[in-house]
Amino acid sequence: MNAAAWYAADYAQARQKFLWAAESAAARVEHWHHPFAVGPGGEPLFTDSAFVGDDDADVLVLSLSAMHGDEGLCGSALQVAWFAQQGARLPRGVALLAVHALNPFGFAHGVRVNENGVDLNRNWIDHGARPPNPLYEAFHATLPPPAPPTAALRAQWQAAYERFYAEHGDWAASDAISRGQYTRADGLQYGGDAPQWSSRVLLELLGRHAPRARHVVYLDWHSLVRSGDGQLVFLCFNQTGDALFTRAASWWGDAAVNRQLVNAQWAQGIERSERRPTRCGLQMWGVQRALAPRADVAGAVIEFCADPGPAHEGLQAEIEGTLVQRWLLAAAQSGQAGSAEAAALRQQRLQAGCPPRPAFRERTLAAALEAHAAAVEGAGRWARDDVPAAPGLLRTQGAFE
Q1: CATH, residue 203
Q2: How far apart are CA 128 and CA 122, in angstroms?
């Protein structure tokens, strides 16, 4: 497989490839023009969708890329390769909806968050009852104010992290930092104060393309776990042991979604986190709640994994990535995203999420296509089983149990 043909260099090229592949597969393509965010050169930004299959399909396969913008290149390549190689071939009773660049601002600017600094995978909560995160509040109070990255600023952030980990322990500290928080718009893992444009677009797409589906296969493509080229990590957010978790395990194998194994993979690939942290406002949980009781949802966030390399190891690398992204977001929000420095840093972030090494791209894309095919085949079995929707546990926050 020539993986290079499916990968792009940036958001604009990824969009061209996706539209070409979707149209070549005779998919029904729609374009969602972002009403106020623009690219680094002031160009318009779009989320695009491609639908294949029957409108009355019992099972919908939902494939998502670039919820986190700096992780967009890998998921985009998977979607492009799938349409180019598989076209519209689906089992009876199954339709597929691919949403490309769910976060077009983040993809175009090389940052995790959207135009408001919101992490979309923390946005799906009841915004009238936002969950507190007091430990993060304590950490945030020790952080230096936003500023261009310098050696002095890096040292200040390093000291703040080290004090926080030393005081609270690795697990509690990493959990508080990454769980999601709803009070500090200039902070880390900010979940927003309202549903974001991208979240509303996804809900409208599901309303259009899954009006009669009883079951949804959820495939949300991410990257940045550092645990080996060619490996995938399946972060299944269904409740362990329930029918939907068992359904997902039937596609990828019990070992792939096993909690203990996934915690070990996470600990290996994420700095100073012994297992997956708790979460608030996950998109998969939000989709489950939005579709219940008419439809149920099974699936996972699927991480493309990369060998770390010296530039991506340790707390210093994590802090460097955070500071660069904060600088890029500030540059975009102030109209300074067109500079040569910003362009170089954007490319740095996109390549951190999708290393250009041929070995990485060949192995991970092959593994992702296999996982995608297994889910589509599983969707066909789900349709043939002809079972009613059973949404199971619905929630907006919690641990993975």
Answers
A1: 3.40.630
A2: 15
Q: Encode pLDDT of 86-142 as tens digits.
A: 887 899 999 999 999 999 999 999 999 999 999 999 999 999 999 999 999 999 999
Mapping DSSP to helix (H, G, I), strand (E, B) and coil, where does residue 59 land? Answer: strand
CB distance 70 to 352 below 8 Å: yes
Report how far residue 301's alpha carbon sits from residue 277's, in angstroms, rounded to the nearest whole number. 14
**List of residues 6+ apart from 30 with CB closer than 8 A:** 48, 49, 51, 205
| pTM to 2 decimal places | 0.95
Number of domains in the chain: 1
Nearest in space to 66 (alpha carbons), one of 10, 143, 17? 10
Rounded CA separation 293/92 (Å): 24
Domain span holding position 44: 3-131+196-314+330-398
Is residue 162 one of the residues assigned to a domain?
no
**Contact status, residue 383 vs residue 91, Cβ threshold 8 Å:** yes
Taking residue 206's Cβ as centre, other Cβ atoms within 10 Å add up to 20
